[in-house]
């Protein structure tokens, strides 16, 4: 029997979670205060798993996690949270959490995580050294805004990979925030006190890009009047972010591959070997697989860069984050311009949330900045975004009316079965109905498009990865 310590200040939630598991396989112990955890573990050496709420009285769940890892690093800890925070997810995974789950839970995912964790004992690893203080301004500038499942998964990946020296390849459309992910990885890594430098490989011709990366000696070429130290040397012991790497020439790719393999290079026009220790994070909005097929990208370099890959979804695949982003940018520009914050109408938020956003978060940021500057009112209205409205006729749909109609329809379906649910499924009604509705929506949309997953994911506003996950979860064929 596996022994689980569940730490949550809400007794009802703790008991509801415990009731989901087979009492013949799992023995639950409960604590309501994080300050009591370390003493409990010292007195009970047979605990197989800790389930730990992020928000606890006296001592936060993240602080408790750090204490657990100091006294028993191999003990798996599942963090649970009622409030989605990308920074919390990153920190939890960086500090060694086995999993980070948010409420309301997907029951199957929760059970699966507990089952796997109880049989998992990772090799002890040294915790990265963290400075005593961080720049709060940098934290806000580089913050990844969002609470969607896609963003939470990215935050967890950042937390996991930041502890390592692995090369990371970030892919996604332009404007999705790939550099923000790279900065977050660096900021949470042991290299955080050293340089983070960025190079846009698409913005420079081949000769200039080579000099930008590796530097050059005086007289190496026409116009080289002085010795130049390249980005690799400047980023020594830090992180170098290579954006739009799919646009790098084959010759420069060969030199980059050598640096990754041998950790040394020569400046352009020089013979001196320069040794460096640089972590590479690359990003692209192209399909490098297609580039390799076309012969414009090296296969060996691809696999050197893609030790870990992170997909940054377009804004249209995480529409639930749009209101958060709107609020963030309004506050950001009000602070920058030293003016009072403007409000934004509910209708404007709803209609902006329906826009396709081909330029993604960068396009949204630009449009909100323009509206903040040009609007003469204290509240932003949909009329303050004329360029978007002209190219997006769908925004005229009244979302409130649609939602009310759907709610009435669903209520008529739920009302007759609610008594049976209450008597047989206490504590799980919401999750049962939510899963049933989700399954029905996906199955119906797939049927409409005759199984075309691309059109289905676009219509539903979810990523292909999320769609495939739900198809497998519900056995939809």
How do the helices and strands line up, and which of them pair or pack?
Blueprint: E1 2-7, H1 11-19, E2 26-31, H2 37-43, E3 49-53, H3 61-71, E4 77-81, H4 86-94, E5 99-102, H5 107-118, H6 136-141, H7 149-162, E6 168-171, H8 178-187, E7 196-200, H9 206-214, H10 231-234, E8 239-243, H11 250-262, E9 264-266, E10 273-275, E11 279-284, H12 288-294, H13 299-305, E12 308-311, H14 322-337, E13 343-344, H15 346-354, H16 360-374, E14 379-380, H17 386-390, H18 399-424, H19 429-448, H20 453-460, H21 464-474
Parallel strand pairs: 1-2, 1-3, 3-4, 4-5, 6-11, 6-12, 7-8, 8-11, 13-14
Antiparallel strand pairs: 9-10
Helix pairs in contact: 2-3, 4-7, 7-8, 14-16, 19-20, 20-21
DSSP summary, beta strand count: 14
The share of residues in extended strands comes to 5-15%
Percent range of helical residues = 40-55%
Strands ordered across the widest β-sheet: 2-1-3-4-5
Sum up the structure in keywords.
477 residues; 14 strands; Rossmann fold; alpha/beta; Helicase, Ruva Protein, domain 3; single chain; five-stranded parallel sheet; 4 domains
Description:
With 477 residues, the protein is of the alpha/beta class. It has 4 domains: 2-118, Response regulator (Rossmann fold, 3-Layer(aba) Sandwich), CATH 3.40.50; 164-311, Rossmann fold, CATH 3.40.50; 316-396, Helicase, Ruva Protein, domain 3, CATH 1.10.8.60; 428-474, Homeodomain-like (Arc Repressor Mutant, subunit A, Orthogonal Bundle), CATH 1.10.10.60. Helices cover 48% and strands 13% of the residues. The protein is built from 21 helices and 14 strands. The strands form 4 sheets. Strands 2-1-3-4-5 form a 5-stranded parallel beta sheet, with helices on both faces. Helix 1 (11-19) links the parallel strand 1 (2-7) and strand 2. Helix 2 (37-43) runs parallel beside helix 3 (61-71), helix 4 packs parallel to helix 7 and helix 14 packs across helix 16. The longest helix is centred in the C-terminal third of the chain and has 26 residues, at 399-424. The chain is globular. It starts with a strand and ends with a helix. The relative contact order is 0.07. Mean pLDDT is 84; it is low at 120-142 and 393-397.
């Amino acid at each position: 029997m596996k022994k689980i310590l569940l730490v949550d200040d809400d007794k009802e939630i703790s008991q509801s979670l415990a009731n989901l598991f087979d009492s013949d396989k799992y023995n639950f112990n409960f604590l309501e205060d994080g300050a009591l955890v370390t003493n409990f573990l010292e007195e009970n050496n047979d605990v197989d798993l800790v389930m730990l709420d992020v928000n606890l009285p006296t001592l936060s769940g993240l602080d408790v996690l750090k204490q657990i890892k100091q006294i028993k690093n191999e003990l798996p800890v599942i963090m649970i949270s009622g409030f989605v925070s990308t920074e919390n997810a990153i920190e939890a995974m960086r500090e060694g959490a086995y999993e980070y789950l948010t409420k309301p839970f997907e029951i199957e995912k929760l059970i699966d995580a507990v089952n796997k964790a109880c049989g998992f004992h990772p090799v002890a690893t040294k915790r990265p050294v963290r400075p005593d203080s961080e720049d709060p301004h940098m934290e806000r500038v580089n913050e990844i805004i969002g609470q969607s499942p896609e963003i939470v998964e990215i935050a967890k990946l950042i937390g996991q990979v930041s502890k390592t020296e692995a090369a990371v390849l970030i892919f996604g459309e332009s404007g999705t925030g790939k550099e923000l992910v790279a900065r977050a990885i660096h900021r949470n890594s042991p290299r955080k006190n050293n340089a983070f430098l960025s190079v846009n490989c698409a913005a420079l011709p081949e000769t200039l890009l080579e000099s930008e990366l590796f530097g050059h000696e005086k007289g190496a070429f026409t116009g080289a009047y002085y010795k130049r130290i390249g980005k690799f040397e400047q980023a020594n012991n830090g992180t170098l972010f290579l954006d739009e790497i799919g646009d790098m020439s084959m010759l420069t790719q060969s030199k980059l591959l050598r640096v990754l393999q041998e950790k040394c290079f020569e400046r352009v026009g020089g013979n001196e070997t320069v040794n460096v220790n640089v972590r590479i994070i690359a990003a692209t909005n192209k399909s490098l697989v297609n580039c390799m097929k076309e012969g414009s990208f090296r296969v060996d370099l691809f696999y050197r860069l893609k030790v870990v890959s992170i997909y940054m979804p377009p804004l249209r695949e995480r529409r639930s984050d749009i209101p958060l982003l709107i609020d963030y940018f309004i506050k950001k520009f009000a602070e920058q311009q030293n003016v009072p914050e403007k409000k934004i109408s509910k209708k404007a938020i709803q209609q902006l949330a329906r826009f396709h956003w081909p330029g993604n978060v960068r396009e949204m940021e630009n449009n909100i900045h323009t509206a903040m500057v040009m609007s003469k009112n204290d509240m932003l209205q949909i009329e303050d975004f004329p360029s978007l409205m002209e190219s997006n006729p769908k925004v005229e749909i009244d979302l409130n009316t649609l939602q009310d109609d759907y709610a009435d329809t669903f209520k008529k379906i739920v009302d007759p079965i609610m008594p049976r649910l209450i008597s047989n499924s206490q504590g799980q009604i919401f999750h049962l109905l939510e899963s049933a509705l989700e399954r029905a929506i996906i199955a119906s949309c797939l049927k409409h498009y005759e199984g075309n997953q691309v059109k289905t994911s676009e219509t539903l506003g979810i990523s292909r990865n999320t769609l495939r996950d739900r198809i497998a979860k519900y056995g939809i064929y």
